[in-house]
Amino acid sequence: MSTLAVTSALASVFVPIGIAGAVIALICALIVAFALARGAAGLAGGAVGVWIVGALLSWASSFADLWSPLLVSVGALGAALVIGAVLRVLVRGRGRAPQPVESRAETPLAPEPRAQESRTQPSRVTPTPVRPAPPVTEGVRAVA
């Protein structure tokens, strides 16, 4: 078999592997975006870990000079990181209700002192009676 025939045979195998890897990486990038928007760092980390596997699989299609699956994989994670962070900011900002601002003239500068209780006598502690436990006679027995 010539080198050209081997290259052609391997290209017919690696291109579908690369496209499948790009699909896996794209799905994981979507999961990363939603996880970042919700603030689930563990889920985002796991999805990025699986994304790495998908990106490595998509790299296989470059054997046949087909670079688009790898570019889609890398671009999907970059877009997911940006979109997830923007959605996180929007979700956090929308969930908060505006709080009224108090003027400095109305707030006291120092808290008022509280009356302290006099502690001339130390508090008495009653000890708890302790009973020894009976010896263990049941259980695993080791025979020497």
Structure description:
This protein has a domain at 11-95. It has 3 helices and no strands. It has 144 residues and is an all-alpha fold. It has helices at 3-38, 41-58, 68-95. Helix 1 runs antiparallel to helix 2 (41-58), helix 1 (3-38) runs parallel beside helix 3 and helix 2 packs antiparallel against helix 3 (68-95).
Annotation keywords:
mainly alpha; 3 helices
**Total strand segments:** 0
Radius of gyration (Å):
33 Å
The helix/strand series, from N terminus to C terminus, equals HHH
**Residue share in β-strands:** under 5%
Work out the oligomeric state of the chains in this entry.
single chain
Q: Kindly report the average pLDDT value.
A: 84
- Tally of helical segments: 3
**Poorly predicted ranges:** none
N- to C-terminal distance:
69 Å
Mass-distribution shape: flat
Concise structural overview:
The protein is built from three helices and no strands. It has helices at residues 3-38, 41-58, 68-95.
SSE blueprint and pairings:
Elements: H1 3-38, H2 41-58, H3 68-95
